[in-house]
Amino acid sequence: MAVLLLAEMAENGLNRDATAKAVTAVKALGDVTVLVAGTGAQAAATEAAAIDGVGKVLVAEGDAYAHRLAEPMAALVVALAPGFSHIAAPGTTDARNVLPRAAALLDVMVIPEVSRVVDADTFERSVYTSAAVQTVKSADATKVLTVRIASFDAAGEGGSAPVESAASADAPALSSWVSDEVAASDRPELTSAKRIVSGGRAVGSKDNFAIIEKLADKLGAAVGASRAAVDSGYAPNDWQVGQTGKVVAPELYIAAGISGAIQHLAGMKDSKVIVAINKDEEAPIFQIADYGLVGDIFTILPELTEKL
Amino acid sequence: MKVLVPVKRVIDYNVKARVKADGSGVDLSNVKMSMNPFDEIAVEEAIRLKEKGAATEIVVVSVGVKQAAETIRTALAMGADRGILVVAADDVHQDIEPLAVAKILKAVIAEEQPQLVIAGKQAIDNDMNATGQMLAALLGWGQATQAGKIEIEGNAAKVTREVDGGLQTVSVTLPAIVTADLRLNEPRYASLPNIMKAKKKELTEKTAADYGVDTTSRLTVVSTREPEGRKAGIKVGSVDELVSKLKAAGVI
């Protein structure tokens, strides 16, 4: 039994948090070989090799992998697939783009967003906007899965895996990269943040989001938003927490002016401690919050920011 | 340019799914079913391309139970031209996996020869987010998933994708598969005259066997359960009380 784990790459190197959480998820399945692909992959490979539980690191350098386009990435994964019982990746937008393509090329199903590994063939995953959890058993020769990052703790340091080069795979140029628009921020990333402060429709405007951001900065937290806030243009798309946005599970989640639609709850209900601040005491968010405070966010948030 | 849009009949967006008492799945008997919301966005985008003159014909395909004909009619009422229903299941509880759906769609595409496929990025029942990517793989076509913007530029589609941390714009050579994300557009409602007109539009019925595709599931659902519930905690009366509770909980 052996696992090929596709490392998550960011613009500036390895996304260690996502990759190390996926290592935790899959290490019981067999020896873990991490595949690092991209330009400047060598440094990322060294970092991946130090993750506890990693047995080997394969590096695929090359411009073809620079922007993690699905076609060359899937071709690379498929070329390396022989010999592995499982092919996995953290459930990021990159992996969700690449792995289903790789799975189809291998004529196997993909098992997306696994929240628990039961055994080599059996996995748990959420369905119906997290209204249900299914246990599925795969009959495929190779199991291809993505891991729900929020369900696992990151593996620690202490590994010293050997790093080897992987041969690049031929892939027709079907698509090309045009541009990236990455929001620059000094705040922690949503999916790996220990604390998150999120704002909803009640925030009322893009300018008013400053009260959410001030509290977040005081706490060293990431900033999130409900779909309603994003759709209203108060917050950028990549701040969206929920089934169609990001699924998070921080130690502290503060929901301010968020009513608590099922869609939003699906993205944050695994947080350790949830605080809800809303002026509507009947808001569904209070049904899952550990601490609820009924009142106006425009008076409560500045007071909370000051008193922390 | 012909555009093909696959659509899925799923539990309505506003209905909360209930797990059956015996743990065998989610109860879909007597539950309101609708078009998957992401597929509605895909249909809308195809119609807008046609209105702009970039698309000439829109063919809608659904793979599933007979009742999915209603879902196709909805798309036709919105403005799609023609429908193909591929019956692959008798029971509404039987979900056809993305790999099998992709194989059927590949066969449909061999006959229809569209230049562009716009699919929803994900179905809200099985939450797989896989059919578009799998179809692209089987056809050997390029793909652009999670589209927030699509522009046709000659022999390519320029697509802005919603990715972790921001946006990525790619150019994908046609024919290609694009999957629609939430913010691509806001789908229109079908008007009553258009709903009446849609009843006269062509809807061809086929079966999975017509395309020689084996729809046996690769993944067996062993059990389905409700997620661990989360109990409501307490209401605090003031910011000071909240701060002391959070300190006691060790999270600040």
Automatic annotation (TrEMBL), chain A:
Keywords: Electron transport, FAD, Flavoprotein, Transport. It comes from the Bacteria. Binds 1 FAD per dimer. FAD binds at residues 201, 226-227, 240-244, 257-264, 278, 296-297. It holds the Pfam family ETF. Its cofactor is FAD. CDD domains: ETF_alpha. One of its GO terms (biological process) is fatty acid beta-oxidation using acyl-CoA dehydrogenase. Residues 3-181 form the Electron transfer flavoprotein alpha/beta-subunit N-terminal domain. Belongs to the ETF alpha-subunit/FixB family. The electron transfer flavoprotein serves as a specific electron acceptor for other dehydrogenases. It transfers the electrons to the main respiratory chain via ETF-ubiquinone oxidoreductase (ETF dehydrogenase). This is Electron transfer flavoprotein subunit alpha. The lineage of its organism: Bacteria, Pseudomonadati, Pseudomonadota, Alphaproteobacteria, Rhodobacterales.
From TrEMBL, chain B:
GO terms for biological process: carboxylic acid catabolic process. Pfam families: ETF. InterPro entries: ET-Flavoprotein_bsu_CS, ETF_a/b_N, ETF_b, ETF_beta_N, Rossmann-like_a/b/a_fold. It comes from the Bacteria. Its cofactor is AMP. Keywords: Electron transport, Transport. One of its GO terms (molecular function) is electron transfer activity. PROSITE patterns: ETF_BETA. Residues 23-215 form the Electron transfer flavoprotein alpha/beta-subunit N-terminal domain. Heterodimer of an alpha and a beta subunit. Belongs to the ETF beta-subunit/FixA family. PANTHER family: ELECTRON TRANSFER FLAVOPROTEIN BETA-SUBUNIT, ELECTRON TRANSFER FLAVOPROTEIN SUBUNIT BETA. The electron transfer flavoprotein serves as a specific electron acceptor for other dehydrogenases. It transfers the electrons to the main respiratory chain via ETF-ubiquinone oxidoreductase (ETF dehydrogenase). This is Electron transfer flavoprotein subunit beta. It comes from Paracoccus sphaerophysae.
